[in-house]
Amino acid sequence: MSGFLSSSIGRKISMSLSAIFLMVFLLQHFVINFTSVFSEDLFNSISHFMGNNILIQFVMQPILILGVIFHFVMGFVLEIKNRNSRAVGYAEYDGSANSSWMSRNMIISGAAILAFIGLHFYDFWIPEITTKYIEGDTSGMINGNFRYYEELVHKFQPLWRVVLYCLSFILLSLHLLHGFASAFQSLGVPSMRNKIIKTIGNIYAIGIPLGFIFIALYHFAIH
Amino acid sequence: MNLTLKIWRQKSSKDKGGFVEYKIADISEHMSFLEMMDVLNEELITKGEEPVVFDHDCREGICGSCSMFINGEAHGPDRGVTTCQLHMRKFKDGDKITIEPFRAKAFPVIKDLMVDRSSFDRIQQAGGFISVNTSGNTTDANAILIPKEDADLAMDAATCIGCGACVATCKNSSAMLFVGAKVSQYALLPQGKVEGKERVKNMVAQMDLEGFGNCTNTGACEVECPKGISLDNIARMNRNYVGSIFGS
Amino acid sequence: MSVLNSNVPEGPLKDKWTNLKNHIDLVNPANKRNIDVIVIGTGLAGGSASATLAELGYNVKAFCYQDSPRRAHSIAAQGGINAAKNYQGDGDSIYRLFYDTVKGGDYRSREANVYRLAEVSANIIDQCVAQGVPFARDYGGQLDNRSFGGVLVSRTFYAKGQTGQQLLLGAYSAMNRQISRGKIQMHNRHEMLDVVLVNGKARGIIARNLETGEIERHSAHAVVIASGGYGNVYYLSTNAMGSNVTASWKIHKKGAFFANPCYTQIHPTCIPRSGDYQSKLTLMSESLRNDGRIWVPKSKEDAIAIREGRKKPTELSEDERDYYLERRYPAFGNLVPRDVASRAAKERCDAGYGVNATGEAVYLDFKAAIERYGKEQCQIHGHKNPSEKEIIAEGEKVIEAKYGNLFQMYEKIVDENPYKTPMMIYPATHYTMGGVWVDYNLMTTIEGCYCIGEANFSDHGANRLGASALMQGLADGYFVLPYTIGKYLSNEIRTGEISTDSPEFEKAEQEVKEKINFFVNNKGSHSVDHYHKQLGKIMWDKCGMSRNAADLKLAIAEIKALREDFWKNVLVPGGADTTNPELEKAGRVADFLELGELFAKDALNREESCGGHFREESVVQDGEQKGEALRNDEEFAYVSAWEYTGEPSDAILHKEELEFNDIELKQRSYK
Questions:
Q1: What pLDDT was estimated at residue A4?
Q2: CA-nearest residue of chain A to B179?
Q3: Using the 8-state DSSP alphabet, how is residue C144 labeled?
Q4: Residue B196: CATH number of its domain
Q5: What percent of chain C clears pLDDT 90, i.e. is strictly above it?
Q6: The domain C523-636: what is its CATH number?
């Protein structure tokens, strides 16, 4: 076990495990958000549950944050190492001849997603933590109603934010279009040319970000 | 056809090196790329200049010596071929062709387009073998039955010619297709399974030590590989590596 | 009595090797640690010998000019490796393999060596499988075999069309194991430029580091040459660009006799030359002749029209085609042995019927096979009244399954689709049966200097059978030399380390340096390739597939003149202290220019036709066999071993008479 995380394959595998964890999180996040489209009550009650459940708040949330940090830090560490493994670059390099843009630019899509997460934390997570743990208001209520749905709708009113969200989800989609199959490949499942895994990956990578975009546009449009 | 060649010239590993442009005329489309280089070199020699140094030997695509990065691709624009099998009919009259050495920290340039790929040898020495002495009384070859499918897959992995195109083309200079192919060949055969765990651990450790980058599954290596070595070999190596660390 | 002693052990043929092994002196393991062996070349013979000697405990110093042992040209062998395993139960045996090899070699090989080769052949397969060589298997998981080169049994083991590659990688992996243990010191990108003799024994070499240009001294208790054949004397051949005779030639000049240099195999199915810029020829597996029909146009007008691009081969009707092999050899047809097929192609092209722009190509046509297989497939699938198109589609599928990779390779090189238009082929130099003379123990006439694999002369006589080169290389390296070298080394246990400071090393190094300095300082006017191409043309035209006394005499004079010109006017750019491929080539071509002359001299001396050596003067005069090769066992059943005395033309001939006690000598007939 020692040295696993310093070996190339160990790092690959840790990247893919954290990626799969984040993809599972993303899926549940999407499902919960999607309820806001058809049921304000359902959305509110789930949100309240998630925001106040001890297991989720104090076990899952820290793991998630660590997972996000790990995935990003390791991603950057690997990128730097990979760049350093070619001291003199090519004058001409035709990457598009043999690989997809997505696969070659995970660091760009990844960095964009990181920036998005920053915005997202600023929009939702920091106010939420402030309300709950600094101001001590764990009721989840404002003016006698659950506040979650209102907050969500409120955030999607400015056009700039909706546009920014949409762009970020497009980049997330690009990240996932390569990342989904890549994660399984790294774990040892021959995936890169496997039709089934590729298809599931494409459905996931396009479907989930598209769903998020739909939610944002929906709330922007109807309110 | 007439061509302009932009070629990397570097006197030695210590020299900085740079591009030099050459014009070359009357190239037949039936020539191989290296025959075109021969014509250039013959011209340079007659002019009293030093010819361009490059690795080449069998010129039939099997020894793995030739190693040019042509117009942004390892072994040039054709698929399933080494540089020596690339023919000039893939180019047009008036083309400008950029020719660079295979580049990676683990493949330092020796001179011009010739690079040092001994890192591949060292990876093999770390475990790319089955420990059996020559005795003349190993078991009869047919005492070990091997399912045809496994034998064929092992053969597919074993066709790697060690040219280094995978490393050269990979944006990360990763050697995982090469190492994966060798690990796979033995992992697929019963003879190789005995030392399987140690082999994958040692070969991966040596690969890391040599300074190759990490694999991000772009798949470029598989596309540019002259022998079409499959990415599945990398997955198999990953699997075996995990098994060697965590398996009982 | 000849000075040559083949040291063949006494006793019945089948017991010779066993007896020798039982009684040979062995070296104590503790002493092996103190003994060094140099091995030049890391192909099948050198690689397997290095690995095995290191396993036994000797310190091996291995050298190759390539950047890795894995790139030796053994890697290019396609077809397979023979072994008398009789897995197919079709009547194969050690004796039959022995018999086929001697007969195939046209009775010009040493019986005892060939028998030993057949004996150890089965061990090779066991050893390679244990190493992880992925030979082809059948659905039951057992090893598959095919029939190869017109023999009557299926004894050829193969790994797709890359058998040489897989066997070499096996030997390379065995070497790697020993390199990692420190038992082999591997010197890549090093070329041996001379052997050093101390008191008449081979004690080391002078080598050039091809990367830095440094001249190095390396000492050992024995030197093994495994540097392959000299087919590149023809300039164009199926050999690798770097394949050379230098190591063999250097030991020849220091006292090792060179045997049968004129025995060369010209392989009939190579891709033809397309122009003067051609640097190398590519072989396609002989198996193509199993289904392809060879022809040229019947009329010269058609041949000219095709050469000029006015006509296509597919436009010629059956009546307008000359299937000359089927016409001349009705019994064997397109499957006649390599030498016969090659000569027949040359005869037609020389007569003006060649079909590509250079006039040196014949057609290999798969149309008939495609139609035959197509009809068969339609029948099998119950397809009544199939259309022409359907038949061809089915037939092409069968051909693709059998030869797909070869067809693809052809198309890449020639840019024509061989399914639709006939392939063009022409013979090319492929293998050299001649080489350094060795005794039964594989020792040359220099004490302590051994020669194995294609570099020696021993096992293939005047013609090599398909799938036998790999067998011989590995037999020598894995199973023969490691035993026989012990006989010599057992007397070396008290020698101690060999110093490289002796005057002998000093002198040898000085000579090597002088030659290198000459090359880099000679302000000549012609490149090395200029001379190599000219030499190749002389060899091909006058010492090629068909030879006669007048031409050979001319060749000797021309090569001599060319050599003199070379030493005056060769131009080698660049310096001595750096990577300099032109300098490497200069040294190699200098040796080819000497070998070429000896080659012609040997061919002139051998006034008979045998195997790959065809003398126009020695043919059957009349009867059914009229015009076919005629061997002369009365006068020429010997090995020609040449002793160097200063100039190739002054070489002294020593004869090793060949005795055949277990085999009856017969003339070959394929009519």
A1: 87
A2: A9
A3: P
A4: 1.10.1060.10
A5: 90
A6: 1.20.58.100
